[in-house]
Amino acid sequence: MNAVDRIEPDAAVEHVDVLIAGAGISGIGSAYHLQEQCPGKSYLILEMKDTFGGTWETHKYPGVRSDSDLYTFGYRFKPWIGAPIASAEEILKYMGDVIEENGIGEHIRYGHRITGCSFSRETDLWTVEATRLSDGVKRNFTCHFLWMCQGYYDHEKPYIPPEWAEMGLKEFKGDFVHAQLWDPDYDYSGKRVLVIGSGATAATVVPELAQKAAHVTMLQRSPTYFFCSENKNELADRLREIGIDEPTIHRVVRAQIMHDQDLMTRRCIEEPDVVVEELRELVRAFTGKPDFQFEPHFAPKYRPWQQRLAFCPEGDVFRAAVEGKLTVVTDTIDRFTETGVRTASGEEIEADLIIAATGFRLSVMGDIPFAVDGKPVNWHDTVTYRGMMFTGVPNMAWVMGYFRASWTLRVDMMGDFVCGLLNHMDEKHAGRVEVVLRPEDKGMELLPWIEADNFNPGYLMRGLDQMPRRGDKPEWRHNQDYWHEKDEIPNIDLEGPEFLYAGACMDTRRKLNLETAE
Questions:
Q1: If you write DSSP's letter for every residue of 71-105 in order, what string do you get?
Q2: CA proximity to 280, closest of 300, 265, 260, 261
Q3: Which of 94, 128, 185, 430 is the most buried if burial means most Cβ atoms within 10 Å?
Q4: Could you report the per-residue pLDDT of 252-263, keeping only the tens digit for each?
Q5: CB 273 within 8 A of CB 303
Q6: Other C-beta atoms lying within 10 Å of the C-beta of residue 358
Q7: Which 3 state secondary structure label does DSSP give 200?
Q8: Using one digit for the tens of pLDDT, what is the confidence trace for 115-173?
Q9: How far apart are CA 223 and CA 238, in angstroms?
């Protein structure tokens, strides 16, 4: 399905019940749940890009693929049929099918950059200001509920260490690009390529580059853990072989994978040394080298899953190293030179192309200015309710997914929560809901968004002062633990003291407005 430019009538203000920010994996999934569970509510999706896809439209570097299996990264309502690890192209096709099959496309306004969001408790309305990028026209939208699905990083400005400028980056005479800004028409055949970084992006791009480049060097400050596996799911293949229908296969395989991931997560905490040896044994098996040397380049100093465990289908990164197509250097940069990089230990790495795989720049709520009753919102002054809602900010939810489990698992679960909340508001004839600290939370210590020893990727650690804070109680934190939340979130008591309802019924207000107009 291709995105179609939509030129909207020049109305002063366009009103809907729910406005969704972003037409990526979160926004499209949320729209589906809204249609299914709140069929009477009107909605729009505002998307900055000219098409859907979010992350999968932004990243175009060689080999870009999921690092979560599609049986759990895919939506629960749309069976995935194919290999567990999928290319960006395959994921975009899957999302396009969801949009087309469910009539979501007519609700999307492409090419609209949100420039401001303000809420009034007097009217119980959000006013969302946007610029239509095709012609610069300013548009205003109002809604009762704002569903932020724009993700967590800046899609236009990736993270490049600022100190690189003082380290002579401009002296490099070859080509330089951040992986996030890769031009798919660029020909790297026969070039010496230096990839700086060692996370999920580097793990994806390196083996693909190695197929055509003269040689690839991966320069890393510290190693990453890799999980090597065949790109197939034996249970799914067997169920298909015996004729089980795809919805059942999807449901059963999701359950199996989530069970296995839960077990792996717990084992990484309880017996990390055993898990490390198992990960190494997989490397030995896929490379055919029982004496594969892990020190120093494949021996991280942290336990597995403190940072993302990078998936390595067929052991491709390690096979590239064994075949001599990839050299790994564990060091820091002293400075850039005309021909490449000199490391702190004095090694000269020559390159025709340098690719920065240095990660994201955190973008909280899309860096959009927010205000409530005319007062600017500083997100760090708010306290998060389960990583979904925030004190002092009514009628809004933010989709922040998982990093140890598939992001989309939380999209589906939050779809249930938000739709249940909207329906509950209607039942109560309430026009406003916000989360508040309870009497028993008085004096609760407020802490950074997440514990550094729980999950500590660079982009998050660099931006913790921008993130909402957490409390020391389960309700006031996003614990990144799907296996607890899958039981907790569906059983949230919407009449609990942390929910404050107020305002006139939406339907009543709508009726009064109609009567006034008449």
A1: HHHS-TTS---S-SS-BHHHHHHHHHHHHHHTT-G
A2: 300
A3: 128
A4: 999 999 899 889
A5: no
A6: 23
A7: helix
A8: 999 999 999 999 999 999 999 999 999 999 999 999 999 999 999 999 999 999 999 99
A9: 36
